Amino acid sequence: MKKMLTVVIAMLLAVGAVACIEVRVGSADSAETEEAAGGPVAVPGELSAEEAEAGFRSLFDGESLEHWRGFRLDQVPAGWAVADGVIDFVPPTGDDAGPRADLMTREQYRNFEFRFDWAVTPGGNSGVMFHVSEDAPASYSTGPEFQILDDGGHRDGQRMETSAASNYALHARQGGELVPVGEFNTSALRVEGAAVTHWLNGEKVVEYTLWDDEWKELVAASKFASMPGYGMMETGHIALQDHGNEIWFRNLRILILPD
Question: pTM for the full model?
Answer without folding.
Answer: 0.85
